[in-house]
Design brief:
single chain, alpha+beta, Alpha-Beta Plaits, seven-stranded antiparallel sheet, five-stranded antiparallel sheet, 17 helices, rod-shaped, diguanylate cyclase activity
Length: about 700
């Protein structure tokens, strides 16, 4: 499996991508918003400067209008008119001084002037060395007209108002009065107090001249140079540490600018405060973005790593763990897709495993068919099937041709028995009785995981096997339309599944064919009267056992025997009685030898042979004696008559006494004839001396 470093892993790259995706927009927006804020603040302050300039201009005009109103108040004063009419200069000066104080004209640095009808200056308050009101204003006032004007007088900007003075006794003006005030530092300071901004009044021109200011001289001159360098009017310009805005006004002999200077320190302070707030907000946004990014990446990574973990389990061969992800998104869809793939892979593997298992079982059964026959074949087949299906126990029943019943042939419980057991006692079921009988009757397989609740179930006991089954699987052994028997498997952990039934059906077909073929083969090598093997099969088996004996360096014994005076039975009681004796003797032989180990055959007529692998001469003699005694003690009866039957036996051993099949048969035959010559009903072991004591007449081979 490919090894992935942490730097190259998605656990690093995905959070890094999310962090970058979250931080870049946040940082860019912070930079953009900071620049936008600065621009908007400058625009706001520029607008504020324009508004302040307009406010200052309005205040300036209000002062001028206020001066005109105060001029009218003075002109309507009867005391002033009376003093002028009586030419009482002292009284006039006193009245003007009182009005000057009462009307707060010192704020304007104003001058009150009274002119005689001839245009000559009579008095001025405060006293002046020169005439301030223009001559045309005086002449107009003497004619009864009102005049307001603004003009430069040297380095000063003057605002003048002139109007006539009347006396009740005269229809025409008795004098002309004018009030002039200079635009002074005191006036602009009053405007600053109201507008809240620094104020300058500048005479427009090539170089300009500061007429009045609230700033110090150096600051005023610096701002004047910047202002004069910019030829535009009524606009905002910036010169650290002020932002300027001016309003232009025309006068009789020129132009002046009312300039406000807004300190940018306040703007910078506000911008700094707002930027601090922005920094806090941006920091919070970055932290939030980090949390969201890490949360999203962790969510994605956790899902992705879970999918990787589950995929690795599938790769490692764990196909039973479900690939499941509780996610209603593409990860959930991917998990479902992976789980579908897992199920398909598992199903494919199970099908292949089942196919391989079936092929393996078929091969094992084929090997058993080749090397086994009869009950040996059934024992081997039952072992193979139990191991393949993983059942705890099993049995095979075959239909008995004579009785038509199901006979229990072999049983196997690996927990109790090392090998399957041949059933010697007759345990049978009628066709249709119990589950096995039902299967044999109908040919239908039965899978039952609770047999005690099935009314067809019939318990039985054999060799301490507890038949209180938890579950069972019973199938017919059927070839075409013929049912040969049933195979039953019991007690599988977790219960039998449909797959077990399918697998066992294929096996059961092969087993049934094997049993049928074995039956046919058995018929071909079995004597029809006694059920023992025929002579030809006996000779083949003896040849194989002798080769096996040489290969494994072990003894093989041979017993030959015949029925004493058998011809007398046939002559006295008939051939049917003789056949009955032969069948009974063959049955006793079958019960006296080792099932599946020894081989018994009808050698010819009333002669029989027994091949005993891995048995020495003494062991063969003991078996021969046991067989002789059992036949001698057996009760033979035919048509109500009791028959006495005995046998004579001869034993020989390979390879100590013989070196070939023919030699071994010859030695056993010599021992047999020695028993006959010795009086019959006895067992004799071959020794070389017998060849000189007995005249041998061997039957043709």
């Amino acid at each position: 499996m490919m090894r992935i470093t942490f730097i190259k892993s998605i656990r690093f790259r995905l959070p890094a991508f999310f962090l970058l995706a979250a931080l870049l927009p946040t940082l860019l927006s912070a930079i953009w918003s900071s620049g936008l804020l600065e621009h908007r603040m400058e625009e706001m302050f520029a607008q504020q400067a324009q508004d302040s300039a307009q406010v200052a201009s309005n205040i300036f005009e209000e002062y001028a209008q206020d001066l005109f109103l105060k001029t009218r108040v003075i002109s309507q004063s009867q005391s002033v008119s009376q003093a002028v009419n009586s030419n009482n200069y002292l009284t006039l000066i006193n009245h003007l001084s009182d009005l000057y104080q009462d009307l707060n004209l010192q704020l304007y640095d104003a001058v009150i002037e009274i002119y005689a009808p001839n245009g000559q200056l009579m008095v001025a308050e405060p006293r002046q060395s020169k005439q301030l009101v223009p001559a045309d204003h005086i002449q107009a006032a003497l004619k009864g007209e009102f005049k307001n004007s603004r003009f430069f007088a040297g380095d000063e900007l003057l605002i003048c108002s002139s109007l006539p003075l009347y006396h009740a006794s005269k229809p025409r003006p008795i004098a002309a009065m004018g009030i002039s005030f200079r635009v002074s530092h005191q006036l602009v300071d009053q405007i600053r107090k109201i507008s809240g901004t620094e104020v300058m009044v500048v005479q427009a021109g090539a170089e300009g001249h500061v007429l009045a200011t609230t700033l110090d001289e150096s600051s005023s001159q610096g701002l004047l140079k910047m202002l004069m360098a910019d030829k535009r009017k009524n606009h905002v310009s910036r010169s650290l540490p002020y932002m300027l805005s001016s309003v232009s006004h025309s006068v009789r002999n020129g132009e002046y600018l009312l300039v406000v200077a807004l300190s940018v320190a306040q703007m910078h302070q506000m911008m700094a405060s707002i930027k601090e707030v922005l920094v806090i907000v941006e920091f919070a946004a970055i932290v939030l973005a980090l949390i969201i990014a890490l949360g999203l990446s962790r969510n994605f990574i956790s899902k992705l790593m879970e999918l990787v973990r589950l995929s690795q389990k599938v790769e490692a061969g764990d196909l039973d763990t479900q690939v499941q992800l509780e996610s209603q998104d593409e990860f959930g869809v991917l998990a479902q897709t992976l789980d579908s793939m897992r199920l398909e892979i598992r199903q494919t593997l199970r099908e292949k495993e089942l196919m391989i298992s079936n092929l393996t079982i078929r091969d094992e059964i084929n090997q058993a068919i080749i090397s086994r026959s009869g009950n040996e074949l059934l024992l081997q087949v039952l072992t193979i099937v139990i191991e393949a299906i993983q059942a705890q126990q099993g049995s095979i029943m075959l239909v008995d041709r004579d009785s038509g019943q199901l006979l229990l042939k072999v049983v196997y419980d690996p927990r109790r028995d090392l090998h399957p057991v041949n059933v010697h006692e007759r345990i049978s079921f009628s066709i249709g009785e119990g589950i096995a009988g039902y299967v044999a009757q109908t040919g239908e397989a039965i899978l039952c995981n609770d047999p005690h609740q099935d009314p067809r179930f019939k318990p039985y006991h054999f060799q301490e096997m507890d038949q209180r089954l938890a579950n069972l699987l019973c199938l017919p052994l059927q070839v075409e339309e013929t049912i040969l028997g049933v195979i039953s498997l019991d007690n599988k952990a977790g219960g039998f599944q449909a797959e077990d039934l399918i697998q066992l059906q294929d096996i059961a077909k092969q087993v049934a064919i094997a049993i049928k073929n074995a039956e046919l083969y058995e018929l071909s090598i079995t004597d029809g009267l006694t059920g023992l093997y025929i002579r030809r099969y006996f000779q083949d088996m003896l040849e194989q056992e002798l080769k096996r004996s040489l290969r494994f360096q072990m003894q093989t014994a041979l017993i030959l025997f015949d029925i004493d005076y058998f011809k007398r039975f046939n002559d006295t009681y008939g051939h049917q009685a003789g056949d009955a004796v032969l069948r009974r003797v063959a049955s006793l032989v079958g019960h006296s030898i080792r099932d599946g180990v020894d081989t018994a055959a009808r050698y010819g007529g009333e002669e029989f042979a027994i091949i005993m692998p891995d048995t020495d001469l003494q062991g063969a003699w003991q078996v021969a004696e046991r067989l002789r005694q059992s036949i001698e003690a057996a009760h033979f009866e035919y048509e109500g008559q009791s028959l006495k039957v005995t046998i004579s036996l001869g034993c020989a051993e390979f390879p100590l006494q013989a070196d070939s099949r023919e030699s071994l048969i010859e030695k056993a035959d010599i021992a047999l004839y020695a028993s006959k010559h010795g009086g019959r009903n006895r067992s004799t072991c071959y020794v070389p001396e017998l060849e000189h004591q007995v005249e041998i007449s061997l039957p043709p081979s």
